[in-house]
Amino acid sequence: MKTKAFLGVVCVLLFAVPGILAQNTEGTKPQDILFSAPELDFFCRYMLNKEFSMPADAVKIRQRDGGKVESDVDSIVRYANLAVSPEGFSYNVLAVIKRTDYDLDAAGKRILPGRNMDRTLVSRHKFGRSKSTGKIVGHREILYDDSLGSNFGMTGNMILFMEGDTLVNLFLPGGYTDYAAAEGKYKPATNSARAEISVKDGKVFRTSVSETFDVDPETLKMTPIGGSTTGTLVAEIGEGK
Q1: By the 8 A CB rule, do 70 and 102 touch?
Q2: Count of other CB atoms within 10 angstroms of residue 125
Q3: Predicted TM-score of the model (pTM)
């Protein structure tokens, strides 16, 4: 049922978010008026309309809340609905995340039963070129999240750049959101991440290293929660993928 609901939401959001597409005039080439950058070229060639999933041999266990919670995680991510204008470009990120959280006892053993934390998430990523640095900068906005209503409308800043043949996307921490903690509770937290997208042997690899921070809601001071977490998603390169 959740997959069907997700597909319905995707269909609505793909057309509900208007693209700012440049209008060509007679005798004008599209590349003369639309935003152009190696980062956008890479995205269009290797990520747009591709479905990324966790490989079968991936470690699908995550530590959360400073080691108080252990999660079984699996996810599918798709990039879609690209819009390009003279000023920049934007696209939707559609994700179906399967997750079960388990509190850990003093011996580090899982306390049963676990908590179902499945979620369907849709966000809009928007980029343009910084006038001061010439870099590709942008932000993401949560358009839909069926797990935590408070996440709707949340935003976060990003920087996009090439390192050789690898596309790098930095997610910068800021503000706070509801973070699922031990005992089924929530607390204010934020995260930073570095995602690297590369191509090898006919596959696109998206490897992300993220770190979560507790946030003091009064001072907005951030305190790291445990160490960093690494996850990899893979997409096949091919027609219809």
Answers
A1: yes
A2: 19
A3: 0.82
Predicted confidence (pLDDT) per residue in 63-110, tens digit: 888 889 999 999 999 999 999 999 999 999 999 999 999 999 999 999
Residue from 131, 155, 133 nearest 143 by CA: 155
What are the backbone angles phi and psi of residue 19, rounded to the nearest 5°?
-90, 140
pLDDT digits (tens, 9 = 90+) for 225-234: 877 889 999 9
Q: Where are the beta strands (DSSP E) in 112-185?
A: 115-116, 119-129, 136-145, 155-163, 166-172, 177-180
CA distance linking residue 79 with residue 92, whole number of Å = 6
| Rounded to 5°, angle at Cα 116 from 3 and 106 | 155
The Cα 212–Cα 173 span in angstroms is 9
Instruction: Using the Cα atoms of residue 180, residue 182, residue 187 and residue 189 in order, give the sign of their dihedral.
Output: negative
User: Phi/psi of residue 110, each to 5°?
Assistant: -70, 140
d(CA 74, CA 118): 9
CA distances from 16 to 81, 200, 216 (A): 10, 35, 35
